[in-house]
Design a protein that fits this description.
Blueprint: E1 10-11, E2 17-18, E3 27-33, H1 42-53, E4 58-64, H2 76-87, H3 106-114, H4 121-130, E5 147-150, E6 156-160, H5 169-180
Parallel strand pairs: 3-4
Antiparallel strand pairs: 1-2, 3-5, 5-6
């Protein structure tokens, strides 16, 4: 990876500048989120995961993206309001970005370069095809709610398919292992 994840310029959902350096030394779960997706209910599980592990040095980071079927059409303010009102989201949310394709944000370019393979991608690809949606080609992000697990040292450890729920045993075990490392 040419650029450290910690130095890539980001914006919080309120517009203030940020970088992942603000979370250096923590285990992070970076998730591209959307408000109008069949997987949107994962916000609830992501918040529970954040609450469960935050005191151990863990954070879920939400990155709204409108890349898939226009499922995140809102403004940053609308997204923030939706997440708080519907799911009580307290984990850090960032400004809407592009997670796939030629205009993808440098964060997502770095994440997909560091971890090109998505675990259990085939099942989600089959589901999308069932809805007559042609999946993106690997290593692109497949859909909303794909999850990148980043270790305390800033390295991308694992990448989970969008339909891997926040309470999935393999995801929870991976977070626990990263926290213990």
């Amino acid at each position: 990876m040419t650029q450290s994840l910690y130095t890539i310029p980001l914006k919080k959902i309120d517009g203030t500048p940020a970088t992942l350096a603000d979370y250096a030394g923590k285990v992070l779960l970076v998730v591209n989120v959307a408000s109008k997706c069949g997987l949107t209910k994962q916000y609830e599980g992501l918040e529970k995961l954040h609450e469960r592990f935050r005191d151990q040095g863990f954070a879920v980071l939400g990155f709204p993206a409108n890349d898939f079927a226009g499922q995140e059409p809102g403004s940053d303010a609308e997204i923030a309001s939706f997440c708080t009102a519907n799911f009580g989201v307290q984990f850090p949310m960032f400004s809407k970005l592009v997670a796939t394709g030629p205009d993808k944000h440098p964060l997502y370019a770095a994440l997909t370069a560091a971890q090109p393979a998505t675990e259990d991608r085939a099942g989600m690809e089959d589901m999308l095809r069932g809805y007559k949606i042609e999946p993106t080609a690997a290593p692109e992000v497949l859909w909303n709610f794909e999850k990148f697990l980043i270790g305390r040292d800033g390295r991308v450890l694992r990448r989970f398919a969008p339909d891997t729920t926040p309470d999935a045993d393999k995801l929870v075990a991976a977070i626990e292992a990263a926290l213990a490392a």
